[in-house]
Amino acid sequence: MHGSELSLDAPSAEQQRFLSLFLRSEKEIFRYVAVLVPNSTDAEDIVQQTALALWQKFDAYDPSLPFTPWACRFALNKARQWIERRQRWQVLLERGVAEELERRREELRPELELKLRHLETCMGKLPEDQRALVEGYYYRRSAIEKLASDSGRTVAATYKGLQRIRHALQLCIDKAAGPQGVA
Amino acid sequence: MRINFPSREFDDAVAAVCHGLPSDEQARALNVLLRQDAAARDEYILRVELHSRLASQSELFVSGMASNLEPVTENSFAFPSLEPRRAEPRVITTQNVIWAMGIAACLALLIGVAWQLQRLNPTSNAATPAVAPMSDVAATDWKPSVTNLAGEEYPRVNSERRAQFRIKAPDAESVSVNIGSANMGSPLTVTKSDDGVWTITTSPLGIGFHFYRVTIDGTSVADPSTQIFRGGGGDWHSSGIEVPTGEDFHERKNVPRGEVREQRYFSRITESWRRAFVYTPPDYDSNPSAKYPVLYLLHGGGEDETCWPAQGRVSQILDNLIAEQNARPMIVVMDRGVARRPGEPDTPSRPAADGSRYATLDDVFMTELIPMIDQTFRTSADREHRALAGLSLGGAQAFAIGLRHIDQFASLGSFSGIGGPSGGSFVPRTAYGGIMADADAFNRQMRVLFVSAGADEPEWMLSSVQKFHQTLQPAGINHVFYESPGTGHEWHTWRRSLREFTPLLFKD
């Protein structure tokens, strides 16, 4: 177990190997968690908890096997622990919904990849004000209150603006992907 | 609460989940839907995936900025614009991103350690985003909401449009407040002081009237400090709060005032007593020989005939417009938009273009209400002097009934209420029994066809109304479209819509 050996000094070779693997899988781990806990801040917390758990168990990792599925099992456990402490998310995901969402996302992954490869093109077509809002929220991770204040909107209107932009992106992606959408 | 798919409620619930803000009701209803509806599950997964890609693919923003330098020619998709806002361009380089990813990876480990320490010694609760820390509240010019009962200081509102609520519940273990329409109703955590008083200060709210309810130990109730209003997300009464708008068209002014009368009549169709509120203009009693045109106004889903006179402020708006000579003196009739024959099921909430789902209400209006009004009040009893309008569900009902009886109504208005899901399959040539098939003939008959929505309404509703408007244009159907800036699916949109609609009516 590596937990007691974690140092804030220059990373060891083992830490560097772990970081290298983790960095390559981090986005997929995040998206795996986000199926159950879509809020970015919460999902990031879970990914961070997962990172620590993975490091502590890194001795048990078999390097002949792919890292991401191994890491996602830890992420799933961390996500479930997180959900268990929050009643509202339990209510949302209870009675098999969590398992069905995980299972169905795996089935849909090829189609999702096909569709979402157009996301970059569609992002490039966003009007400047919309891209600034998306960038502020998703990339810079600015507080929603700051984004609202900067734009002179209410918090609710800012959330609504983000919802509209996602909707517009989805329409753009659907149009670009043509009839072969998600089944 | 029940969520159908597709629907505005589904859109809002998924968006709330993405932002970590679903209400208990939304979470419960979404769970039921996701268990039962495979198509809803797939759409949910797609939307969450899109959201999580935006949150995790930093290269989207790098390449997005780069593409700004070159024209995009792949296809002709055009994004609708939000309200104008300019942001300073931000230069992002690949080097920056790699550097940021390296830092993020190190932070992942460091924060992981910190999280472990915090779990052993938890000292803070996660703040609900819409709750403002007191340190952020700059303005101290608090004023009681005008909807408060006499002498009640809370809830109060300041010039930053923040609201502050105070609930005394010393024995309660939890108190929360839900503000606004369903799409704004994320529960807010309240702080309890030593004397058992729970206080909350919100972030800036939208302008105008908002419903709200207080939940004490899981039981949802109205605030005892305020007036109650019908509506607010279910067939119930809610508390109301007014956030100053900076406008006065709906305020009581020192102008001649009309009167709102309560008119009860027995309906043989529903075998029940019904009630209509009737606004008569200021000179109605002093000018006994005058006859007046009539506007029939319908409320929204979950509301009743009290809503337009109360939170809709019909008398204030009409008194002011008439005093300014911006609207002709008129009678306004506000009846209940629900009518059932004995044993008939509830009125469906989904609008229907052919009006058949409102058949009983249609019968009550045409054979009981309008004849009763024409017999009781001094009306100009012909189609040229009769209009019908409504909000939300009432807007759909107004078009469904009014366009079936174009011989009875020369003017129609739908505020936030027409178009069907995502614009539906509205085809002017065939909709409403084909009444618009001959655009010229229709335009000659229809004096005013008015459609409106709030610019901050849920995407489902706003795009539905916009598509309806955009479909009418190329079909050559004369109409007026109004979009209320900065307001949602709430009463200030409909007050403004009334202000815009009534001056157009009954022009000889």
Main sheet of chain B, how many strands, which sense, barrel? 8 strands, mixed
Quantity of strands of chain A, as a count: 0
User: Structural class of chain A, please?
Assistant: mainly alpha
Q: What is the residue-averaged pLDDT of chain B?
A: 80
Largest interface: A-B, 94 and 88 residues
Following the backbone from N to C, one meets helices and strands of chain A in this order, namely HHHHHHHHH
Rg of chain A, Å, rounded: 19 Å
How large a portion of the residues of chain B is in β-strands, by DSSP E? Answer: 15-25%
Radius of gyration of chain B, Cα only, in angstroms?
26 Å
Number of strands of chain B: 19
Q: Unreliable stretches of chain A, pLDDT < 50, 5 or more residues?
A: 1-9
Task: State the main characteristics.
heterodimer; A: 183 residues; mainly alpha; 73% helix; disordered N terminus; B: 508 residues; alpha+beta; eight-stranded mixed beta sheet; six-stranded antiparallel beta sheet; 19% strand
Folded structure, characterized:
The complex is a heterodimer of chains A (about 180) and B (about 500). Chain A is mainly α. Chain A is built from nine helices and no strands. Chain A has helices at about 15-35, 40-55, 65-85, 85-95, 95-115, 120-125, 130-140, 145-150, 155-175. In chain A, helix 8 (about 145-150) crosses helix 9 (about 155-175). The radius of gyration of chain A is 19 Å and the shape is globular. Residues about 1-10 of chain A have low confidence and may be disordered. By secondary structure, chain B is α+β, with helices and mostly antiparallel strands. Helix content of chain B is about 30%, strand content about 20%. Chain B is built from twelve helices and 19 strands. In chain B, strands 12-13-15-14-16-17-18-19 form an eight-stranded mixed β-sheet, with helices on both faces. In chain B, strands 4, 5, 8, 9, 10 and 11 form a six-stranded antiparallel β-sheet that branches. In chain B, strands 1-2-3-7-6 form a five-stranded antiparallel β-sheet, with no helix packed on it. In chain B, helix 2 packs across helix 3 (about 40-55). Chain B is globular and about 65 Å long. The relative contact order of chain B is 0.08. At the A-B interface, helix 1, helix 2, helix 4, helix 5 and helix 6 of A face helix 1, helix 2, helix 3, helix 4 and helix 5 of B.
